[in-house]
Design a protein that fits this description.
Distance between the termini: 63 Å
Oligomer: single chain
Structural class: alpha+beta
Helix content: 55-70%
CATH architecture of the domain at 1-66: Orthogonal Bundle
Number of helices: 7
Radius of gyration: 21 Å
């Protein structure tokens, strides 16, 4: 990622970017100077905050794969505040309202959270059953 070029064109400061990345300004400085690479999470946060169209100008091909993942039937080709477009192999475009996409993403995150909570519950349940069995043996 040409983060230096991104910062210059967008006039975003390293301090502002550190808030987006949830890291120290020193870590951002290391990324800008090439001492560290951006994580996938940081690449996604950058695109979420400033838009795929802006970030894609500065992203490497590997980062673009993160930003424009393959989806069933195609690849995300545009993701802005109003719509998401997916291009299929036969060059057809499927558009979706960005609000709908945001709701689906939120629901997906909620489902992931519920699955994680269920796993914690099952782990606790297994532990309790083990303790009950141990008590019954005594």
């Amino acid at each position: 990622m040409d983060l230096k070029g991104f910062l210059k064109e967008t006039r975003v400061s390293q301090v502002e970017l550190s808030r987006v990345f949830d890291c120290s300004p020193g870590n951002v400085s290391n990324i800008v100077t090439g001492k560290r690479n951006m994580t996938e999470t940081q690449v996604r946060r950058l695109a979420d905050k400033y838009g795929l169209d802006v970030v894609s100008k500065f992203a490497s091909p590997a980062e673009m794969k993160i930003l424009r993942p393959s989806v069933p039937g195609g690849t995300v080709v545009s993701d802005n505040a109003s719509a998401v477009q997916v291009q299929s192999g036969d060059n057809n475009h499927i558009s979706a309202d960005a609000t709908l996409v945001a709701v689906m993403k939120q629901q997906s995150d909620q489902i992931s959270s519920l699955i994680a909570q269920q796993q914690v519950f099952l782990d606790h349940q297994d532990r309790l059953l083990s303790l009950i069995e141990a008590c019954q043996k005594q």
